[in-house]
Amino acid sequence: MTSRELVVPKILATGLASIATATTTAFDFGTPDDVKVAIGTNYALSDRLAFVITASTAGTTDSSDFIVLDAPDSSGSIGSTAPAVTTALPAGAAGNQYVVIGVQLQPSRPWLRLQVHRAAGTTDTLVCRALLVAMPHSM
Fold this sequence. Notes:
- It is built from no helices and 13 strands.
- It is mainly beta and about 140 residues long.
- The protein has one domain: Jelly Rolls, CATH 2.60.120.
- Strand 6 (about 75) and strand 7 (about 75-80) form a beta hairpin.
- The protein is globular and about 45 Å long.
């Protein structure tokens, strides 16, 4: 295999979130908390985007799931959010989770927000880490 045949995903952002109650919490990707995907050095229009998420907890009681939103730009900040076009989101689960969510960036909606959601329960604290990666379309 030559180096041209290897797939080299590009990491666009890394984020963290923690949830311990029945709420919805956005991942913190730094300032600003959300991710603006801009065409440039690390992202090309033909790239495929995916959130790679690991979530760990010592418990197995409370169920949590993930939400991906997109939004237009509003003077350099995230605008009004709406559900993003993604691969099928996994159902809520308890315990440790390992999730990959493909995202289709929409025209004029460069902002992405990743959230963790829990409908009920306060027994477990779930600590989540996420990478937003761009992969060449030729993959």
